[in-house]
Give the backbone structure.
Amino acid sequence: MPKLGMPEIRKPQLIDATLEVIGEVGLGKTTVAMISKRAGVSAGIINHYFGGKDGLLNQSMRTILRELNDGVRERREALPADWPIERVRAIVGGNFDSRQLDPRVMKTWLAFWAQAMHDEELARLQRVNEKRLLSHLRYELRKCLSREQAREVATGIAALIDGIWLRGALSGGVEQAEAVKLIDSFIRGQLGLWHSTSRVQIASNY
Amino acid sequence: MPKLGMPEIRKPQLIDATLEVIGEVGLGKTTVAMISKRAGVSAGIINHYFGGKDGLLNQSMRTILRELNDGVRERREALPADWPIERVRAIVGGNFDSRQLDPRVMKTWLAFWAQAMHDEELARLQRVNEKRLLSHLRYELRKCLSREQAREVATGIAALIDGIWLRGALSGGVEQAEAVKLIDSFIRGQLGLWHSTSRVQIASNY
Amino acid sequence: MPKLGMPEIRKPQLIDATLEVIGEVGLGKTTVAMISKRAGVSAGIINHYFGGKDGLLNQSMRTILRELNDGVRERREALPADWPIERVRAIVGGNFDSRQLDPRVMKTWLAFWAQAMHDEELARLQRVNEKRLLSHLRYELRKCLSREQAREVATGIAALIDGIWLRGALSGGVEQAEAVKLIDSFIRGQLGLWHSTSRVQIASNY
Amino acid sequence: MPKLGMPEIRKPQLIDATLEVIGEVGLGKTTVAMISKRAGVSAGIINHYFGGKDGLLNQSMRTILRELNDGVRERREALPADWPIERVRAIVGGNFDSRQLDPRVMKTWLAFWAQAMHDEELARLQRVNEKRLLSHLRYELRKCLSREQAREVATGIAALIDGIWLRGALSGGVEQAEAVKLIDSFIRGQLGLWHSTSRVQIASNY
DNA sequence: CATGAATGAGAATTCATTCAT
DNA sequence: CATGAATGAATTCTCATTCAT
């Protein structure tokens, strides 16, 4: 019998190598030769495990999406359900945690985003993710805002997250603290618009 | 009136074709053969006029950047200098005018953005543009806010512009009215944070 | 009764799978992976039992040659030695029995034939077979014809067998009855040429 | 302007090289690298002119089919329409002229034949050809035989042509004279079956 | 100016075979 | 015995670029 459990070793190994290479040279210049060399295996093995370059890229995409989702969920669920604003801040923070701010990861995200414009499979994955972010934000905001207000603020937060992230990707980096501060400020502004005397408890470190 | 030389005919012709093809198949699958066929000329001519594929892509990038800037400037300058908030809204509107919301243009933008991650020449162009947007916003906001406040609000607006745009690119489209409304709401919220009794004149259609 | 070793199980299993796959996708597209999958075993086992793909193909070839020969011999020997024309007809019938007319078998034959043009080992096998067919025909015909006449008629019958078979392979099928009828007609014509008043007994169902 | 008329030079050049290589190493071992090297051009040019290996093989097939047809037609039409048997013999001769008996051409034919079993495009071409041969034979035989008789004799001649050819391909060669003699014999035998006192004029060199 | 023929480097993919388990 | 992981050579196809006309 051949070595058992190799798929569980090789697949993550190849996906990691893929993300590294994309982060370094860009999706357009990434070749299976580079990836396999980085992973320390032969090029042919990619077809063995992923059916081809496309399959590997697809799985890589799913992996970073899942990592993002897992990180955000952990942060959010670590807080009580009756602290909605804190939970929103946790969601924001999760989108800017150190793993996501790794320049190579940011480059990979952008590459996949551009790719998704012309690849329905990737586009679908991205849309699901976008909807999930929005949905979680709305759910928490609903605890202290009207349906319409929650919808609008959630949309704004989501846009700020992506916008800060995108501008950061271009200019060389994002400061998590800066990002969280800006979004906090947006939330306070929005809450203020509707609650001149807001009773929502906002953490003192705002 | 000088007679137009071939360069003045061929270059825009090829740049238009480039943007169309990128919008349709993506930067990664765009070939000079496709571009030249679309433009109705031979493949070799691209090297003649642009020195190669890279030169053509670079010029194409500069073209859409210039179009965006020109559009934004026209809208901004059409308003009095002492209507800063209106001018900010004009800047926002310019970033979401119909030309920029053409799906093919959005795809091209995203493609160039991803490409810029690994191409210093493109990255420089993008950074210059980002700085210009921020600078204009700050300049107008300075007329009714402190330096620090202006900086922060400008950063937020820029992030919202890019974030709304990015999410729209993915989900299939952006509604200009929605975008402007969201950013208006942000501005009002931010102004409210600092001026509980704001004296800034905000257009009545807010 | 000796217990069957694995070789006696595996070899026919793999040869059958080989013929099936060749019949379905053609020799050129047949891979060991396909064959082993069809046989329900691993790819590596082919080298274990046949020393490689070539060995398996060679054995497969020998198998269908043997099947054809066995079938023809059985039919021929089932008839009395002093019914030469009936024996000739039995040889013809054997070449068009249902096993040989299976479209997958016909495709395999043709594939091996083409392959034999460039593979001396296969060519040798085929030549032996061709000679055997001719030899049997001549042997029977010699009982009622001169050496020269027997040689010529045998050559014609062999050519007709292969020609009918080849044309049938292309056009989608052969009718055994049609084939036998045509060759009968040829034999009668040939006999008639030399024996205006032939004394050879030809079966009444001619 | 580039060199004009290159397609008319390159295409036959590449097709010739293809037939030569297939004739030498077999279809299965033929690579575009071999073909282009033989033709003295680069491998890429094959895609330029034929869209890929398949296109080249297809065109090569069409070429040898056309050559055979042209040769047969010329021979047939060189004889008076009221010499049907002579015309039939011309058709037979055309199928065994020196060009068709070149071992490389025979190998190519056989390769294509096997390939056609799994390639509908090739199969269609072959069927058209088979039908044409049969049709011409029937047309000529109709001039001296009944419809049914003409059909049967034509079928037999066609089978003999292919069978002799196939057996020759395997055993290393065909003698045109032998082939024609055998088929002549068949024709005479068949004519004799129906016309005990045949009035059909058969050339004296029979 | 413009063409498109031609090149050649590079990329993905295929696949028979080997071999540790 | 048997597996299937792994390899690496071979092959097809792509494509930017060059260049003779």
Summary: Confidence is low (pLDDT under 50) at residues 196-206 of chain A. The CA atoms of residues 51 and 100 of chain A lie 28 Å apart.
